[in-house]
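Milestone 3.1: sequence recovery, worked example.
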């Protein structure tokens, strides 16, 4: 017996499959385009001196920092790929050149803090240093074994993430990165990510030396968890509390009061005093510890 509807069904089925594949490809390409143009709501911010040779060169909230020296400069964090040009412009506005940046450092490898490092690396020729765990994510364009699978799949097809970045050197906890007289010590403060890195370094401001800490994010993400996470955070709290600190910053400007402190400093004719904030540093750690105790996720 001949089934007359079978050829018609097969042709329609093929059409549905083709349209489905075309739709998926279109979503991937549109997703990649949106990811490549994403700024995360960031706009340019006025760059300024925090103290001595330490400057803010980030966007309105996604932070980046410049430490200048006679043998070249160091930049911490790179924002999104689309906001990296803001960092370059801010460096120039302060009277420095991206071409003189010799070292790039990173706090954590999420797109809002690491995505722009490839742009900065290309424009400067600088060497990128990263922790072992962060190095994998940076080199793979944001892939993270601890990400939940749907997000990890989106990274791998380019809908989220960023172009892979060349990692030139890997450091261990407690290593010091040197460039002439500049010396920044790496502290692996895991929890937000496994390789999350805080940095401590001295800054000379006039006749005094100030202790600076660039603290990594201490929040646990609902989209990225791992078995040792709580233990890593406990260790991070203890380590960060042990560091001497006068000035502290972190990867999101609103957390350390960028604008408030900038306005206060400008009103005081460039005084560094508004940035000296050990109490704010302790409160930042205390808040993160309280979140851990309440099992609060971000």
């Amino acid at each position: 017996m001949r089934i007359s509807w079978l050829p018609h069904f097969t042709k329609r089925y093929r059409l549905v499959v083709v349209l489905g594949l075309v739709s998926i490809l279109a979503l991937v390409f549109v997703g990649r385009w949106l990811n490549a143009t994403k700024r995360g709501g960031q706009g340019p911010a006025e760059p300024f001196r925090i103290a001595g040779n330490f400057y803010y060169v980030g966007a309105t909230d996604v932070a980046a920092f410049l430490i200048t020296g006679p043998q070249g400069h160091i930049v911490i964090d790179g924002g999104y790929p689309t906001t990296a040009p803001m960092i370059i412009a801010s460096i120039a506005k302060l009277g420095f050149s991206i071409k003189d940046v010799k070292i790039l450092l990173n706090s954590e490898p999420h797109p809002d803090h690491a995505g722009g490092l490839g742009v900065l690396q290309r424009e400067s020729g600088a060497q990128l240093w990263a922790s072992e765990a962060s190095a994998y994510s940076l080199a793979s364009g944001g892939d993270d074994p601890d990400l939940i699978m749907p997000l990890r799949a989106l990274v791998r097809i380019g809908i989220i993430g960023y172009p892979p970045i060349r990692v030139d050197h890997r450091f261990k906890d407690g290593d010091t990165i040197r460039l002439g007289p500049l010396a920044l010590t790496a502290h692996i403060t895991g929890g937000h990510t496994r390789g999350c890195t805080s940095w401590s370094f001295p800054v000379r401001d006039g006749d005094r030396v100030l202790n600076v800490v660039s603290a990594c994010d201490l929040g646990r993400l609902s989209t990225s968890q791992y078995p040792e996470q709580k233990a890593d955070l406990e260790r991070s709290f203890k380590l960060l509390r042990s560091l001497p600190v006068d000035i502290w910053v972190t990867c999101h400007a609103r957390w350390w009061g960028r604008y408030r402190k900038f306005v206060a400093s400008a009103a005081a004719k460039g005084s560094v005093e508004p940035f000296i904030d050990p109490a704010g540093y302790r409160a930042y750690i205390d808040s993160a510890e309280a979140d851990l105790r309440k099992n609060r996720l971000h």
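The CA atoms of residues 9 and 267 lie 76 Å apart. The two ends are 63 Å apart (CA to CA).
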